[in-house]
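User: I'm writing a short report section on ligand binding and want a predicted complex to refer to. Could you take this sequence and 2-acetamido-2-deoxy-beta-D-glucopyranose and write out the structure as tokens? A short remark afterwards would be nice.
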Amino acid sequence: MLISPASSLWALSLASSWVYNGVSAQTWCGKNYMITEPVTDPGGQFPISLTFAEPHLALRCGPAVKPYLPEDVDSHLTDPTFTSILLDTPVTFTNISGATVLSNASNSTSLSNLSLDVKVLLDGKTLTSGSVPLNTSKHTLPFSLSTLTPRTDAYNVTCIGLLPTGEQVLGSSLLTFLPEKPDGIGGVTKMDMRSGALLAKPPTGEDGPYEGIFPIGFYTQYGSYLATNLSISGVLKEQGCVHPVPDFDNVTVLDEVLDKMQEAGLWLMYDMRNTYQNSTSVTEQVNHIKSRPNLLLWYTADEPDGTSDPLNATALTKNLINTLDGGDGQGGAGYHPVSLVLNCENYFWSEYSNGADILLQDTYMIGNNVTFSNQWGTACTVDYGDCGCDNCKGSFADISTRMDEFYERAFIEGWELEKVVWTVPQGFGNDTYWTRFPTGEEWVVQSIVGINHGGLGVVSWDDPTPDDIKASASSLAKALTSGSSPLAAFILDPFTTFRQVTTQTGIDIGLWTLDGTTLMLAANMNYENATIEAAELGLGKGNDGFGGGLKKVFCSGVCDASDLKKSVIVLGSVSSGAFILA
Ligand SMILES: *[C@@H]1O[C@H](CO)[C@@H](O)[C@H](O)[C@H]1NC(C)=O
Ligand SMILES: *[C@@H]1O[C@H](CO)[C@@H](O)[C@H](O)[C@H]1NC(C)=O
Ligand SMILES: *[C@@H]1O[C@H](CO)[C@@H](O)[C@H](O)[C@H]1NC(C)=O
Ligand SMILES: *[C@@H]1O[C@H](CO)[C@@H](O)[C@H](O)[C@H]1NC(C)=O
Ligand SMILES: *[C@@H]1O[C@H](CO)[C@@H](O)[C@H](O)[C@H]1NC(C)=O
Ligand SMILES: *[C@@H]1O[C@H](CO)[C@@H](O)[C@H](O)[C@H]1NC(C)=O
Ligand SMILES: *[C@@H]1O[C@H](CO)[C@@H](O)[C@H](O)[C@H]1NC(C)=O
Ligand SMILES: *[C@@H]1O[C@H](CO)[C@@H](O)[C@H](O)[C@H]1NC(C)=O
Ligand SMILES: *[C@@H]1O[C@H](CO)[C@@H](O)[C@H](O)[C@H]1NC(C)=O
Ligand SMILES: *[C@@H]1O[C@H](CO)[C@@H](O)[C@H](O)[C@H]1NC(C)=O
Ligand SMILES: *[C@@H]1O[C@H](CO)[C@@H](O)[C@H](O)[C@H]1NC(C)=O
Ligand SMILES: *[C@@H]1O[C@H](CO)[C@@H](O)[C@H](O)[C@H]1NC(C)=O
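Assistant: Sure. The structure tokens for the complex follow:
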């Protein structure tokens, strides 16, 4: 959310104020936005990668799961890639991190026929090795944890790739193998980087197996809502994950609210937005909260890029939290991951993202004029103004663009095996820039577009929200996580293959295929009917179109799959559907 001068963030945001002609200027995403202020260069843009004439190769490697625990030793016999090193071997013509020129190999007629001989070293000893194809993603090289000792300090991992032409590429990473959680830690959230899913035991604190979690829920107003009535947690049960918004002024009341959430089986995303730069306060809060079994993850900065917080603030806090939560505070994993949200399209992205395992983006494009600010009476451009959606065009594609850019930058930085991105659909309106609320159907479109572009969590700003958004969110949450074909079972499975397509007609589609069955998640981004044709997706056999095996498992709005012989599905205005194709 955007700060207002009355909010407690004001004091912290002084870092982004400066004096121009005696007038104090306030910025958002580094841009001046008051009509009295001049246009300036906001700075902080992500560098445009240099293009090369010759192909380059990079080698990225990292553990499939972080952290590993003693319970993982020799216990994944039916899933050997659980304990493996993931390898990416992008062949590229741009200057991505670690790119090495292929001068010799590029002479050979077909690069795709070459493979890389990879050795993964840990403490100088070979942990695993194997042949890895070029230009592949998430290739697995299993290893055994049994020769390693659990410890707080992450192990340094070095990956060396050798081509038959004699060329060598290097990659490095950290592998965390923590001791069994001590009594002071309530639960463990592992990140499965094969899919990006979070893995955790039941939030109630009862014993049970680790399961993949697809968090879907709301930033939930605390003082004015959650803390006012202890029965609210029961009401929120369906959404699975709650993100209370501070201040949590009374610890006794906070504990009661969190107890109720735990009883109701709700996951907690613990927010320290107003205090994340105060190490004393963070220490107190983390030590108080870390024993909760329903703690899913930490959340530090809320739009630090908007307020131009110090560039090292998010990383410093992540390391502090990590130290208090069983990690080494130097990049290794702790017992829970750390998240934050960025609001700007392109402002010191790497610096702020550096402080997150899970990065959220909040692109709010409903009900605001994204090119002319109704608040400040100025145009919004790449170097001026604030319209509530930074560098947006005012369509749902702003969300997919933002998700894709975040992924692309993570890839350029070599972070694609380390970080995941979640999405924040707009669930508010009638507020500053946003003249109206989204409808429930628009809320679902925003969410599905985010999921189709890699979003592995959906946390909406904010609850309380209108009834139709609440109803739509519950019904999407149910489809994702329960029923006979929960969508999350496809999305979170490490063996799913994924494809995203945007049709000519403006429908954003995600296709997850697992064991010959495909989940299709489709969102119509138009305010009129639009159709999906089987042929356009490369689905269906011959004249069979989608075939007889299509099953509708979720619909928001109008989803007409009655005329499958024509191989066409009609989605109504801003309607969305989920279909299983056998
Ligand atoms: C490629 O990018 C790195 C930073 O990631 C930089 O140090 C290097 O100079 C760049 N190489 C070229 C040829 O531009
Ligand atoms: C590959 O081609 C480059 C010039 O493009 C040349 O310098 C190099 O010697 C060649 N290498 C081999 C192994 O032929
Ligand atoms: C690549 O390998 C395949 C099978 O090993 C072979 O049929 C093909 O001719 C090779 N292509 C080139 C360009 O070397
Ligand atoms: C590598 O794979 C990407 C897609 O994953 C593709 O776009 C690119 O063309 C491939 N590069 C080469 C050199 O084959
Ligand atoms: C890992 O490597 C870094 C940088 O080379 C070094 O500072 C650190 O001590 C190493 N950590 C361990 C646990 O060996
Ligand atoms: C390229 O191949 C030549 C001849 O085999 C070899 O001497 C040279 O070291 C290779 N270059 C690289 C960068 O590996
Ligand atoms: C916190 O709330 C409890 C329960 O409502 C109350 O008894 C207590 O006085 C409050 N503590 C403070 C410091 O306000
Ligand atoms: C930091 O947090 C501590 C503990 O809550 C508090 O006493 C202190 O006043 C805070 N410092 C600042 C500068 O807000
Ligand atoms: C973080 O950055 C600030 C400048 O914004 C600097 O004053 C401070 O020393 C840095 N802290 C650390 C630990 O590097
Ligand atoms: C945004 O505001 C400008 C200036 O008032 C207006 O010309 C434009 O039509 C508005 N755009 C939208 C999408 O409402
Ligand atoms: C919109 O906000 C105004 C001012 O906060 C409030 O008076 C009004 O009731 C709100 N309307 C709706 C539909 O929420
Ligand atoms: C939109 O599609 C629905 C379902 O097929 C259909 O009932 C309706 O008539 C269509 N509306 C328009 C305007 O074409």
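A remark for your report: Residues 50, 95, 97 surround 2-acetamido-2-deoxy-beta-D-glucopyranose (ligand 1) (CB under 6 Å). The chain has three domains: 51-175, 215-482, 497-581.
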